[in-house]
Write a structure and sequence with these properties.
- The protein is mainly beta.
- It is 11% helix and 30% strand.
- The chain has three helices and seven strands.
- The longest helix has 7 residues.
- 24% of the residues are buried.
């Protein structure tokens, strides 16, 4: 493995890296109370992992239209319910756990936990939660996980 590659490599093994997926994204998330509302603070790595030998394909969910899952440090994307309840608009400044962020986007309503999610850059969330260098999730996106002739993992 390339030790100078993306930090997600230190959390996964080579057999996982070579499985059938199109993107891996490192995340760190934790439930918090924000302005009196339950929220899920989610940090997303600035770069996804593409399996060896595969061309980059468009993500099924992207935070930025130009580069999927890229969010600038110091900015957040607010879930629909959070933004509406708190009457927060794009460009507003918000305080999250003592740090000021600019609202880059208000996410559309999904009817899922994403409606109460605060998306931010992974480094910002690691700092806010005092968990530098840590992740607690790896999202495998656009998977071809089921093949009757192969082990799913």
């Amino acid at each position: 493995m390339n030790k100078k590659g993306p930090e997600i490599y230190k959390f996964i093994s080579r057999p996982v890296i070579e499985r059938a997926y199109n993107h891996l994204i490192a995340t760190l998330q934790e439930r918090i109370t924000w302005n009196g509302i339950q929220a899920i603070l989610t940090g997303i790595a600035p770069k996804e992992i593409i399996p060896p030998g595969k061309a980059k394909r468009p993500m099924t969910f992207a935070l930025e239209p130009k580069t999927a899952y890229t969010i600038e440090q110091g900015t957040v994307y607010l879930g629909f319910e959070l933004a509406n309840k708190l009457e927060i608009k794009r460009g507003d400044k918000v305080d999250i756990l003592g740090k000021s962020f600019t609202v880059a986007r208000r996410r559309p309503e999904t009817g899922t936990d994403d409606d109460i999610r605060i998306h931010a850059h992974l480094r910002d969330v690691q700092t806010l939660l005092k968990k530098e260098g840590q992740i607690n999730g790896i999202k495998a996106l656009d998977c071809a996980c089921y093949d009757p002739g192969k082990d799913a993992l």
